[in-house]
Amino acid sequence: MNIKQAKEEIKHTVAAYLSKDAQGEYRIPVVRQRPILLMGPPGIGKTQIMEQIAMECKIGLVAYTITHHTRQSAVGLPMIKEESFDGKIYPVTEYTMSEIIASIYRKMKKTGQREGILFIDEINCVSETLAPTMLQFLQCKTFGNQAIPEGWLIVAAGNPPEYNKSVRDFDMVTLDRVRYLNIEADYKVWKEYARAKHLHNAILSYLELRQRNFYRVEADVDGIRFVTARGWEDLSSLMQVYEEMDLPVDESVIREFIHHEDVAEDVAAYFELYRKYRDDYGIADILAGKVRPETFARIYAAAFDERLSVVNLLLDGLSAFFGNVQENKQIADNWYGFLKEYQRRLKEGEAPVDSYRALLEERMAVVEAEKQAEVCTKAQVAGWERIFAFWKENTPDSGLDVKESFAQAKAGFDRQRETLEDAEKKAMNALEHAFDFMEQAFENGEEMVVFVTELTLSPEAAMFLAEHTCERYMTYNEQLLIGKRKRELLSELNR
Q: Rounded distance, CA 395 to CA 158, Å?
């Protein structure tokens, strides 16, 4: 199972476990809600999918790396309590609340979320003293004297023994009480995630040529050498900031994330070439329809790796245009919905200014509630704050009649629609210029297959092409057996 399949299975589990009957009782009793145990290589995205699931399902998330805990912090501290049995007083040992369970209640208090996921990472790497507690946790859903609150699912994750010498095997009794999901690294699935997260295009371009280097764990006389998905993502974040600050990303920096000497050396060499191709070919000029004559002479004589790198650079340049369209479209679409509701309230006789301000406050309250519940990202909040700023600027003046008030409120939307149309025009022109170059440089070669395939799979490009007709894209998309031919192409590269 790949990480995408695991995510979908956990989402289905969330829906099933939190489903209630007519009496408000969970349809699957808590005692039958088996914890999910994710086992897979380190750095493939187990923690990331838990964050995504919580956001998408709009539930809480409490995450812990259990190796950071002692038995006392996980179970609680012992305390003596007196109890009466058959008329006699006996001292009884109980425990204070576990730090982990206390964190769930704090999350519930802070966010208002009564349901969620408790995620315990590296569960099979605990110390000897804590191991019995973890078995009890998986079997009974308790830490010490306290049980996990109803409505909270348990998901645990661990690494197979080939990746960590300190892991402990689970016995049959424990495995018979959990849902076991075995996850493997999958480049194609990770690339979908990488596209959506806008990882540095140089990394995606490199891995398209060197897929065998996506995930590697090797042991030799010099120790363990490894490359993980987490390493690529963290390297991407650093590269993007370094480039903005005009700081170099050399081999020494790459080795801090890619712990495999041969791969790090290869990546550093490719990144240098990638930057050189971007400048030498004048990617911005190509997308503006200003191709230098010497550019074609060079591309005709270039090796396949270089030609494919140029294709990826074109795609990277186009993504900026498509991203700008989607950003402005989101603003326009939300603005349109706001105005439709405002118009409805005006028709019902509400006061223009009061109605506008009340509607704005309602929309702001919804976002604030989602922010407090931690079911939206900081980027999403920032996007909404930008939209709210536009709406505030267009608040109708006092003393205007209904028609004048709506016209004033709509004026900002009209300007935003013009901005969107301009962004759409620029994106389409850039796309047409890119096809001009692709046709002249590569005719119907394999490079065109890659170009059209990536346009189809890229989220921003796909959304743009779904709403804007590009005849050449449609023609190539229909003519080329994209999936089959690309697989054949990439398999040849990896021989």
A: 54
**Which structure tokens are listed for 442?**
């590569």
C-alpha Rg value of the chain to the nearest Å: 28
Q: Scanning the structure block, which residue is given the tokens 């903005």? A: 244
Pairing of strands 60-65, 116-121: parallel
pLDDT in tens, 52-107: 999 999 999 998 887 776 667 777 777 888 888 888 898 887 777 788 888 999 99
Burial 146-175 (b: 16+ CB within 10 A, else e): bebbebbbbbbbbbeeebeeebbebeeebe
Within 13 A of 467's CA, how many CA atoms are on the CB side? Answer: 13
Q: Please state whether 324 falls in left (phi above 0), alpha (psi between -120 and 50) or beta.
A: alpha
Residue-wise pLDDT tens digits, 317-370: 999 999 999 999 999 999 999 999 999 999 999 999 999 999 999 999 999 999
Buried b (16+ CB within 10 A) or exposed e, 63-73: bbebeebebbb
Residue 251 token pair: 């081999």
Distance CA 134, CA 346 (A): 60
Output the DSSP codes for 380-415: HHHHHHHHHHHHHHTPPPTT--HHHHHHHHHHHHHH
Among candidates 329, 326, 322, which has minimal Cα distance to 461?
322
Query: Could you report the per-residue pLDDT of 427-474, keeping only the tens digit for each?
Result: 999 999 999 999 999 877 888 888 998 998 888 999 999 999 999 998
Q: What is the pTM of this model?
A: 0.81
Helix runs in 443-480, H state only: 446-457, 459-467, 471-479
Which residue from 20, 110, 16 is spatially nearest to 62, judged by alpha carbons? 110
d(CA 61, CA 375): 10
Which pairing describes strands 78-85 and 60-65: parallel, antiparallel, or unpaired?
A: unpaired
Dihedral angle sign, alpha carbons of residues 277, 282, 287, 292 = negative
- Residue 370 is encoded by which pair of tokens? 């989602």
User: Could you give the domains of the chain?
Assistant: 3-75+101-184 (3.40.50.300), 186-281 (no CATH), 328-402 (no CATH)
Sign of the dihedral defined by the CA atoms of residues 163, 167, 170, 175, in that order: negative
Distance CA 460, CA 434 (A): 16
DSSP for 102-145, please give it: HHHHHHHHHH----EEEEEESGGG--TTTHHHHHHHHHHSEETT
Quote the tokens at residue 288: 């503006």
Quickly tell me which residue has 């006789």 as its tokens: 349
Rounded to 5 degrees, φ, ψ at 180 are -95, 120
Q: How far apart are the C-alpha atoms of 80 and 417, rounded to whole Å? A: 70
Nearest 5°: phi and psi at 478? -80, -35
Cα distance between residue 100 and residue 311, in whole Å: 49
375 and 55 in contact (C-beta within 8 Å)?
A: yes
Q: How many CB atoms lie within 10 A of CB 448?
A: 20
